[in-house]
Amino acid sequence: MTGKLVLPIQAFLVRSSRHTILVDSCVGNDKTCGWLPDWHRRRDNTFLQRLAKAGVTPEQVDYVLCTHLHIDHCGWNTRLVDGRWVPTFPNARYVIARRELEASEATAGGTGSRTYEDNVLPIVEAGRAVVVDMDFELDDEVRLEPTPGHTLGHVAIGLRSQGARGVVSGDLMHWPMQCIYPDWNFLHDADPDQARQTRWAFLEACADNGSIVMTSHFPLPSVGSISRRGSSFWFEDGQLA
Ligand SMILES: [Zn+2]
Questions:
Q1: 3-class secondary structure for the chain?
Q2: Average of per-residue pLDDT across 80-104
Q3: Confidence at residue 52, expressed as pLDDT on a 0 to 100 scale
Q4: Which residues surround ligand 1, an ion (CB under 5 A)?
Q5: Cα(108) to centroid(ligand 1), Å
Q6: pLDDT tens across 98-119, in order?
Q7: Dist. CA 69 → ligand 1 center (Å)
Q8: Spacing, Cα 216 to ligand 1 middle (Å)
Q9: Which fold has domain 12-237?
Q10: How far away, in angstroms, is 204 Cα from ligand 1 center?
């Protein structure tokens, strides 16, 4: 017993009828993380190996959708080649909410992390970033939905396919207990009041519309649905069909 929460870190691969899409990109290799040794200068290709196992090469990814620009969600946006950060997915457009990009840019030059400099700026400089409003429709199957609070420009990724709905929730919640107690915030929510409001609204909407909810950090399989229980909600573990 360590008394610590153990959280998975993951991305989601989406195959829409038109595109191969990656939602978020974990921690990445060779990144700087002053406060968490496990994330600092990693040398681990599990992420790309799992992508390959799913039958996808980096060149085949059409879009990288960023729920937000924290270090554990945009690491594989770039990789280090001959001392330079280059887009890991050379043919992808990286869709980033303008508000989130601005908030990330404001952290530039900070100590401990170089997330903006190493994971975000190289994408912009390579001309691969598509900067959009937080409410953005990629097409009739995929859209960005504003869910601010954890970060100021945080978005969820709404998916529709053959009459079913799904949503990648990013970090608007970190643990299933937050469905029972939506007022509980994560330690690092940028705007705690907004994070609570977003969580309540999100859980209500998911309970009403029956979305499959794909979370970033809930215990595996991290996928399920939301039902009402008493005056709040319950996360029902499930599997993707
Ligand atoms: Zn996270």
A1: CCCCCCCCCCCEEEECCCCEEEECCCCCCCCCECCCHHHCCCCCCHHHHHHHHCCCCHHHCCEEECCCCCCCCCHHHEEEECCEEEECCCCCEEEEEHHHHHHHHCCCCCCCECHHHHHHHHHHHCCCEEEECCCEECCCCEEEEECCCCCCCCEEEEEEECCEEEEEEECCCCCCHHHHCCCCCCCCCCCHHHHHHHHHHHHHHHHHHCCEEEECCCCCCCEEEEEEECCEEEEEECCCC
A2: 97
A3: 98
A4: 72, 171
A5: 19
A6: 999 999 999 888 777 799 999 9
A7: 9
A8: 7
A9: Metallo-beta-lactamase; Chain A (3.60.15)
A10: 22
